[in-house]
Amino acid sequence: MSTNDDVYLRVAERFGVVLSRVAKNQWDDPTPCDEWTVHDLGAHVIATHRRVYALVDPEGLAAIDEEAPLIDQWGVVATTMRHALSSPALAGALVPGRNGDQPFSQLVAGLLMFDTLCHTWDLAHATGDDEALDVEAVAIAHERLGAVSDAIRVPGGFAAPIESALDANAQTRFLNFVGRSVEVR
Length: 185
Hints:
Elements: H1 3-20, H2 38-54, H3 70-86, H4 88-91, E1 94-95, E2 102-103, H5 104-127, H6 135-146, H7 149-152, H8 170-177
Antiparallel strand pairs: 1-2
């Protein structure tokens, strides 16, 4: 595994921690993602992981089971991704990307890490959990997404950026960049 894999794994672990602390009465609560409840957001992150993993193993992960708790489904997905990244054959398998084929591990360390990072904050914000994000992941995501800013502003992608306060920290600047309205921290 590479350093980039380690960053993704930390982000995925943090998402799992926040997801595990969702109270029974919070699943229908709104999130910063328009029209998504806490449950919808959790299901989205799991479904995105399943779609990405299907690029290297089309039959490896079943569809979301509406009856099974999301935390259990997340456990399966997170374990599967961890094993895939530790497998040289799967991690190095070429998969399609926006700019041509790329190794699976690169897609995970990019798109999947960025999506999971943003939605970890969304979930924490919606449920009143600790909103702090991995500092290294924030720096990597902001730098890489900044290079493709116009391409990420599509339906189903990131919202228009919000201007940050001059004294905003790196996490707030990143969240503002991806269209999240947050207070200066």
